Amino acid sequence: MKTRIVFWGTNAANEKVLVALQLDPEQNKVHEWILPQAQVTEDLANALMKDWRNEKEFVFPEFAQHSEKPLTASESLLSEGIKSDKDDIITRAQTEWHFIVLSHKLKQGFEQEFQDLKEKTEKLSKYENEVWEELKTFWDKVQNQVKDRNLFREHAQILRDGTNSLFEHLKKLRKVVDEEFDKSSRDIVAQFEHSLEQIGQKLNKGLGLQPIFEELKQLQSKLQQSEMNRNDRGSVWDQIDRLFKQIKEKRSGGKDGKEGTPGSERISRRYDGLVEALNKMQSSIKRDYSDLEFEKRKIANSEGQLEAQIRQAKITMIDERIRSKEEKLKDMNATKLDLEKRIEQEKQRDIRRQEKEKLDQAKHAAEDRIKDEMRKAAEARKDDDRIEKAAEAITGAKADHHDHIIDVIGTTLGETLEDVADTVRAVSEVLSEKLHDFVDELKGEKPEAEDKA
Q: Strand pairing of 16-24 and 29-36?
């Protein structure tokens, strides 16, 4: 868009004149030069049309009548009495120049915001991520205005150069902080590895799994709150995960772990991820409130209505962002409470499941013992038969054979009936316990069904 135009027209006396108009967007003013045709040579007209209009060096002659006036959307660009031979030139210039002035005001607003960021950045003695984020937000806004063609590219280039210099300064400060942070992170990793080594030793010694599991959970929670770089955190997290899997395998008796996986452990992993997301959301809201306070302080010292409007728009945008995030935070907290209840319920189910496994083991042991005793009794009866036959062969006492057979049958039948009675009692006890456990299991599973409903 041109800020200078030259055209032929007439004055109030209907005399031919050459008119030159120039926009000063910084001051929002229009400069006008009127040259009578009688004094305009062909070289002068060509110089105005080609050189001056294209912003080359040019000096107006003394006879040129100069005036200036503020640019408005309603008033004409020309002085009273001056008319253009082509009205469309004036109409187009007035529309374009009004946009140019607004674009310059937008640029001035960005320049003021840039100066604020520059002051804040140059005062830093160490890296602050909040300033980095503010600078990123600022540059995103500049780029959006360039894409929408509200800001001229030459103005955007000036802002880009300045913003890049601030980014470079912050990168140098961040490098120092990163080196210190990495050193601190390595120290924290060493502490975690020492604790994990001790937990691994307890696991290898066959100590109680539940206390080890709780200790590992506490260590996992501590890891989430520790300030470490991503690689170190991932390394420690993998070690903790391996120990969790070992506990899982031991609980399931060395199987694939699916049958013995505690429900509380599954929900705990989801709970831990939710807590981490909650912390990030709270930090994000805190940054937004900091930005909001900054804009509220700056809007009181705004230079011009446009800057105030821009800052007010930013405040509205930040308010909406905070509102949206706080709604999400509320939902996340509700989910957190629900998971805490479910974790407690799963723990109780795990306890009942473990008790049931112990009872099942005791029942199987009792059944094995009964079978063993019945087998021994059967073998004893076989030995009695062999002894009787051997005695007959030695004594040859055929006369008492019938009476002895009756005694043996009576003794054997009595022992058999006792064995049957013992077996019936044992089976009755087992069936009674199983029926009792089945009822308890139905009662214990009821809350889970309600949860699923």
A: antiparallel
pTM score above 0.85: no
CB neighbourhood size of 71 (10 A): 18
78 Cβ contact partners less than 8 Å away, ≥ 6 residues apart:
9, 19, 21, 32, 84, 90
Amino acid (1-letter code) at residue 56:
K
Pairwise CA distance, residues 153 & 345, whole Å: 62
Helix-strand-coil split of the chain, %, nearest 5: 75, 5, 15
227 band by pLDDT with thresholds 50, 70 and 90: confident
On the CB side of 238, how many CA atoms lie within 13 Å of its CA? 6
For the stretch 228-262, pLDDT in tens is: 888 888 889 999 998 888 888 887 765 444 444 45
| Tokens encoding 206 | 């066959």
Q: How far apart are CA 93 and CA 401, in angstroms?
A: 141
CB-based contacts of 105, cutoff 8 Å, min separation 6: 304, 306, 307
Long-range contacts of 60-67 (CB under 8 A, 24+ apart): 60/20, 60/33, 61/35, 63/35, 63/36, 63/39, 64/20, 64/33, 64/34, 64/35, 65/33, 65/34, 65/35, 66/31, 66/32, 66/33, 67/31, 67/32
- The pLDDT assigned to 426 comes to 52
Q: For the segment 88-128, what is each residue's pLDDT rounded down to a tens digit? A: 888 888 888 888 888 889 999 999 999 999 999 999 888 88
State how far the Cα of 182 lies from the Cα of 175, in Å rounded to an integer. 10
Mean pLDDT, to the nearest integer, of 31-37?
94
Measured in whole angstroms, the distance separating CA 194 from the mean position of its chain's CA atoms is 30
pLDDT in tens, 38-62: 999 999 999 999 889 988 888 999 9
Edge-to-edge strand list for the sheet holding 29-36: 65-70, 29-36, 16-24, 4-10, 83-84
DSSP structure class, residue 145: H
